Fold:
Amino acid sequence: MGLFKKGKKQKKGSPTIEQTAQPASDPHEDSSDTIYLRALPLREISDLDAIRNEVKSGKILILRITPLASKSIEDVKQAVGELYDFAEAIGGDIARLGEERVVICPPKVKIWREKTAVQSEALPTAA
Structure:
């Protein structure tokens, strides 16, 4: 019998899926135990206020900066600089994801970064 084929008849009096399912909650509603990840394009410098509000509300944002970069590289530098300052000010985190994306996180979320080994000893030479 297939996964979606009719199976045994339901016993009388047992609840159906419709009866036991919880009502769908608003995915944009803030909940203290839920953190949402949202992808947004950065089209204009004016989008920064909405981005700040989303991060303040506890969301992790992945920003695609290509739409703004196609208009002005200087605006991208300004926007990323402002977002970096904002992330630092609230105790959040920010990082680049390749050439086209930036991730910005609220205070309780940190981005994993590989630590590069710093060699303090002199390297041996062939001479």
